[in-house]
Write a structure and sequence with these properties.
Chain A: This is ABC transporter ATP-binding protein. Chain A: It is a peripheral membrane protein. Chain A: Pfam families: ABC_tran (PF00005), oligo_HPY (PF08352). Chain A: GO terms for molecular function: ATP binding; ATP hydrolysis activity. Chain A: Belongs to the ABC transporter superfamily. The structure holds two protein chains of two kinds. Chain A is α/β, with parallel strands linked by helices. Chain A folds into two domains: about 240 residues, P-loop containing nucleotide triphosphate hydrolases (Rossmann fold, 3-Layer(aba) Sandwich), CATH 3.40.50.300; about 80 residues. Chain A contains twelve helices and twelve strands. In chain A, the strands form two sheets. An eight-stranded mixed β-sheet of chain A has the order 6-7-8-3-9-10-12-11, with helices on both faces. Chain A has a four-stranded antiparallel β-sheet with strand order 2-1-4-5, with helices on one face. In chain A, helix 5 packs across helix 6, helix 6 packs across helix 8 and helix 8 packs parallel to helix 9. Chain A is globular. The model of chain B has no long low-confidence stretch (mean pLDDT about 85). Chain B is mainly alpha-helical. Chain B is globular. Classes of the chains: A alpha/beta, B mainly alpha. The interface between A and B is medium-sized, with 28 and 22 residues. The complex binds adenosine-5'-triphosphate, iron/sulfur cluster and magnesium ion (MG). The site of adenosine-5'-triphosphate has 16 residues of chain A, from strand 1, strand 2 and helix 2. Adenosine-5'-triphosphate binds next to strand 1, strand 2 and helix 2 of chain A.
């Protein structure tokens, strides 16, 4: 059993001063949002990750303490396991993070680290084999992990919505896209049956689809991947949600369209003050579009920090390795071969306290049995016994 | 959609030409000498030859074929030597009996198989799922004449619940005035509920026999298609959008699962056309199947040819109908070649 040292509650960070006050509710000023129709950055042209960061006029730490004063979503101690033939897969353990109001948080990690499982658990759409075994997820007074299914169905699609990778298969192939948007609007009372088609067309216009009247009648197979993802964004934002979860929104989309989609997604989110959790493999994408990064490894959150802090001073050995391995940030974590070792088998009954131990060159004896999770700098959380 | 139907029709014309050639050839290679059969066992050699000549059976095959096609073009399927009637009118008068039986069989199997398949897919490993597996296995492994005989044995012979398997109506009842040729509909239209009940009670066992036969493939395909669709990305999207379980299940999942189910349906229906022949024999049903069997036993060419042709036409029309249905369900099928 890993002993857990006391950890600063991120909802009430100690550095929160009255100066941060309730007026500073919006962490991000409109001017900081990336312009919507910027040309995509060609891969490999960003010389350094830090260069691609917006020149922040707001000191990040202050901004985040404000954002965390009243978080949109607070996940604590989330654990998920899957029953399989080969044993129980402990896919998530003690996963915790918060998403402040209007904040855009990146969830990064290599394949299999548990990013999608985290999102699915929050949405309540885990596989039948998966089970939330511990934790809470506070969202506007509701615990998403324990609320009755009926309540959750009213929240899904209205207060929290989700966008998936591979938009072409994520849409119903035999239903016109306008109808699919209307379905959600009608379900959540966003529009009556009569007004829904027009409201759907209006949503298509908001996601900058040209000729929305005609496109509303089109089927997904008649559209490009990027266009389908715009439709997904329209569905997700149709009911003006408070939180948007995007699971690798640019995977399965043409490279040249990826930046356009991200611009649109984050632009609309910032415009309407929607908080967002963006799951991605791409560190450059995270640094470019997000305020904060949560790094996952083998079902643990290993580091959680504002973008600038994380890229300037990574404290977890895994994060440091990731950054070192991607000098331009444009290499995706998916094709990182340079980190030695692989993820531990999550079915093992004797998993070490730190799941990175097999790959770590700073490991201590204690890492086998206990793991310290602490706030090593303001708003900078790290789960490591021997941080950098 | 219109272009697709035209294209399918063009293909259908070619298949029909093939069927005409094959039916002609098939009846010529069947065992038995028609002339000898109809002349009777006591006939002399000369009498048989004379009959052969009058039937046109002594002409070269090519000439016979030309005669056959020319007659077909006039809508003349020849005369049945057994009934003495034109084959076309024989077939038309018996078609409603077969159609009523087959369509009801299909309807009953659909009404059972589809909800069964959906429930089995929604709750895999549940009681319904196991029951579904049991029924589909049984349906596949029981030959249709065996099911028919078994049902007759149990429900008529042992329990006495069903009437004797002797056709469409009890001898004491008269057929309702013909409107559609379907006894259930015609008797209901005439308000003759006694006949309606009589026709219905005669239909129960043969319809069940056909339904049990058709049930298995439909239920299995519905279950498989639903299982696949329920794990698809767009159903996940629908769930993540908070849509109600009903609209996820029907509007999103089932409509998509219908595509393979409709394809299976076409196949099942064509099997049913074949199974129908045996069921009609078992239940002494006066349809086109039993007509064809009697003609076949008597080496009576024309009705057999007419029957095969009628089946082929139905099969082609059926496939056309399936294509249209597919097009209605799936926008992608409308433009597919
Ligand atoms: N249905 C399932 N049954 C068993 N194990 C599962 C299931 N779904 C996920 N897992 C386990 O959970 C872990 C995390 O999976 P997850 O899909 O969240 O990874 P991810 O970070 O989203 O990766 P990727 O970048 O490839 O999408 C995996 O190691 C996997 O073994
Ligand atoms: S130092 Fe220890 S706790 Fe930190 S990453 Fe390495 S093994 Fe894990
Ligand atoms: Mg994933």
């Amino acid at each position: 059993m890993s002993e857990r040292p006391p950890r600063a509650d991120p909802a009430v960070p100690p550095q929160l001063t009255p100066a941060g006050g309730p007026a500073a509710d919006l962490a991000v000023e409109p001017g900081e949002a990336p312009p919507l129709d910027t040309a995509p950055t060609p891969p490999g042209t960003a010389p350094n990750l830090l260069d691609s960061l917006p020149p922040g006029p707001i000191p990040p730490a202050a901004a985040f303490s404000a954002a965390q004063a009243e978080p949109c979503l607070a996940v604590r101690d989330l654990a998920v396991s899957f029953r399989t033939r080969g044993g129980t897969v402990k896919a998530l353990e003690q996963v915790g993070f918060t998403v402040g109001r209007g904040e855009i948080v990146a969830l990064v990690g290599e394949s299999g680290s548990g990013k999608s499982v985290t999102a699915y658990a929050l949405m309540g759409i885990l596989d039948a084999a998966g089970e939330v075994t511990a934790g809470t997820a506070q969202f506007g007074g509701t615990d998403l992990l324990h609320a009755p299914e009926r309540t959750l169905r009213g929240i899904r699609g209205r207060d929290i919505s989700m966008i998936f990778q591979n938009p072409r298969t994520a849409l119903n192939p035999i239903r016109p896209v306008g109808k699919q948007i209307a379905d959600v609007l009608i379900r959540h009372g966003g529009a009556g049956r009569r007004e829904a088609p027009a409201a759907a067309i209006e949503m298509l216009r908001r996601v900058r689809i040209t000729d929305p009247e005609r496109r509303a009648r089109a089927y997904p197979y008649e559209m490009s991947g990027g266009m389908c993802q715009r439709v997904m964004i329209a569905i997700a934002l149709a009911c003006r949600p408070k939180l948007l979860i995007a699971d690798e929104p640019t995977t399965g989309i043409d490279v040249t369209t990826q930046a356009v989609i991200m611009d649109l997604l984050t632009g609309l989110a910032r415009e309407s003050g929607v908080s967002a959790l963006v799951i991605t493999h791409d560190l450059a994408l995270a640094s470019e579009y997000c305020d904060r990064v949560v790094v996952m490894h083998a079902g643990h959150v290993v580091e959680d920090a504002p973008v600038r802090d994380l890229f300037a001073h990574p404290r977890h050995p895994y994060t440091a390795r990731l950054l070192a391995a991607t000098p331009t940030g444009h290499a995706s974590l998916a094709d990182l071969a340079s980190i030695p070792g692989s993820l531990p088998d999550l079915r093992r009954p004797d998993l070490p306290a730190c799941r990175y131990i097999g790959r770590c060159d700073r490991a201590l004896d204690s890492c086998q049995v206990s793991l310290q999770r602490r706030e090593i700098a303001p708003s900078h959380l790290v789960a490591c016994n021997n941080p950098l | 959609m219109g272009a697709m139907i035209l294209r399918r029709l063009a293909v259908a014309v070619f298949s029909l030409i093939g069927v005409v050639v094959i039916t002609f050839a098939l009846t010529r290679v069947l065992p038995g000498d028609t002339a000898a059969y109809f002349a009777g066992p006591a006939a002399s050699r000369e009498a048989i030859e004379q009959l052969r000549h009058s039937l046109g059976l002594d002409k070269p095959a090519a000439e016979q074929f030309a005669d056959y096609v020319a007659a077909l073009a006039r809508g003349d399927l020849g005369n049945s030597l057994t009934t003495g009637q034109p084959v076309l009118s024989d077939l038309l008068s018996r078609l409603p009996a077969s159609a009523e039986l087959t369509l009801l069989g299909l309807l009953v199997s659909l009404a059972i198989a589809i909800p069964f398949g959906i429930l089995a897919a929604v709750k895999p490993g549940s009681f319904v799922d196991h029951a579904c597996r049991l029924v589909t296995t049984a349906g596949v492994s029981l030959p249709v004449f065996f099911t028919g005989l078994l049902l007759v044995y149990v429900f008529y012979f042992i329990l006495g619940w069903a009437p004797a398997p002797l056709g469409r109506l009890d001898v004491f009842l008269s057929a309702p005035p013909t409107v559609t040729g379907f006894f259930l509909i015609d008797s209901a239209l005439a308000g003759d509920w006694e006949t309606f009940r009589g026709a219905l009670s005669q239909l129960v066992l043969p319809v069940l026999t056909l339904a049990i036969f058709a049930l298995a493939p439909i239920a299995r395909m519905t279950r498989a298609a639903m299982l696949a669709v329920l794990t698809s990305d767009f159903v996940r999207t629908a769930r993540a959008s908070g849509l109600t379980p009903w609209s996820v299940l029907i509007t999103y999942a089932f409509r998509n699962a219908l595509l393979p189910v409709v394809t299976t349906l076409g196949m099942v229906f064509s099997f049913l056309l074949g199974a129908n022949v045996l069921v009609e024999k078992v239940f002494a049903w006066p349809g086109i199947g039993s007509y064809a069997i009697e003609a076949l036993i008597a080496s009576d060419f024309a009705p057999v040819q007419g029957f095969v042709l009628a089946m082929a036409v139905m099969y082609v029309l059926l496939n056309l109908l399936i294509d249209v249905l597919q097009g209605l369900i799936d926008p992608r099928a409308r433009t597919a070649t």
